[in-house]
Amino acid sequence: MGTLGAILTFKAFEAGLIGNIILIVLLLLYSALMSGSETALFSLSPAQLDKIRRHESPVNSAILKLLSAQDKLLATILIANNLINILVISLCSNLIDALVEFNSMGWEFAIKTVAVTFVLLLFGEIMPKVYASYNPHGFANIVALPLQALNRLFKPLTFLLVKYSDAIQNRGIVQPENISMEEIENALEITENPSETEKEMLSGIVQFASTEVEEIMHPRVDIEAIDSEENFDEVRRVIMDSGYSRIPVYRENLDHIVGILYVKDVLAYIGENADFEWQRLLRPAFYTPEHKKINDLLEEFRSQKVHLAIVVDEYGSTLGLVSLEDILEEIVGEISDESDTPEELPYKLLPDGAYIFDGKAHIGDLEDVLNVEEGTFDDCRGEAETIAGMMLEIKRDFPRRGDKITLHGVRFTVLAISGHHAEEIRVEREKNNK
């Protein structure tokens, strides 16, 4: 109490101060309405705006009219709010002077600043904006008509402010910053409104322009193709077994694609004999380099009116193929039709907690199953996309049954070989890393 007495002395309360206090409370209420109105009106969702348009009323008409000129609306809110806050600061200062006598000018300035700032921020800014963000439609209904009246009252001032701000923007003094893809992805992560499906689709759109063909293509080993020397019976068998509508045709090996066989072109000749010259039905193959962006490839598909491309490297060797469906799936997710069979998981869980992976399983799938951070094996994989490819990168030699490699506390053991390819790989965490 002694320290407080050295700083200030309280004066007797006078009845005439009640009017001053009531006026401050009213002005704080108006300040709250102005601050909350900005949040409420600019937070109305498209669904809420559509509902407002469909229900005619003076309030709804006022909301739509205010939002049709957002620059003028914002100028009106700022003018009204600043005028009110100036009055609140002045009245609060007078009230404090009437109730307290300060023994130090420094303490007077500090206490007045803290007290008035606290009151304005809490009651005039934070509380109304929090409420308005949770109930934008209700708050907008309360402030729409008063704001419309203030729009008319401050029309000359708002006109000057809007014109001045437009002039600054037109001269290039205010330049909007370019938004990076990373910033857009971060915004998607923190947004609350979209569902998980919508977030995945939006994320796919964001990443679309930066994705390369090699990231989504079907690798060479998975290509279902027909040798140009095969008879028509074999062609019919491949068509029936594969279920594809377009099948590459090669001469000698997949590095020499001679054309694409469209199943719809074969239908008219399906009853022909085995010696039928089906090769004359081939259409030209469309080629694309491995590092082409898929948005560019999509535009080429559209302009060339094709749905399938053979992916080649710089030497012209076939690396894989990519279809229009593969590109669209990058945005909308997996597309399935009645001819698709349920996709089997690329791994099996063993009773001892280890996994048996298909050698062609993607390294990203491995990281997901092991629940490790994305990119854990980036320092080991080199250019490889599959587990078998990563082991080949490490060993620099063809795999043999029983080969073991340990990476980041995960042990890989080759269980089965197909040609020069690791077909089955046992994956397990080392005991001290469980």
Labels describing this entry:
CBS-domain, 53% helix, elongated, 3 domains, Uridine Diphospho-n-acetylenolpyruvylglucosamine Reductase, domain 3, alpha+beta, 18 helices, 434 residues
Write the layout of secondary structure elements.
Layout: H1 2-7, E1 8-10, H2 17-42, H3 46-54, H4 58-68, H5 70-99, E2 100-102, H6 105-134, H7 136-153, H8 155-170, H9 181-190, H10 196-208, H11 213-216, E3 218-219, E4 226-227, H12 232-242, E5 246-251, E6 253-262, H13 263-266, E7 287-289, H14 294-304, E8 308-312, E9 318-323, H15 324-332, E10 347-349, E11 355-358, H16 363-370, H17 378-381, H18 387-395, E12 404-407, E13 410-418, E14 421-429
Parallel strand pairs: 4-5, 7-8
Antiparallel strand pairs: 1-2, 3-9, 5-6, 8-9, 10-11, 11-14, 12-13, 13-14
Helix pairs in contact: 2-5, 2-6, 2-7, 4-7, 5-8, 6-7, 9-10
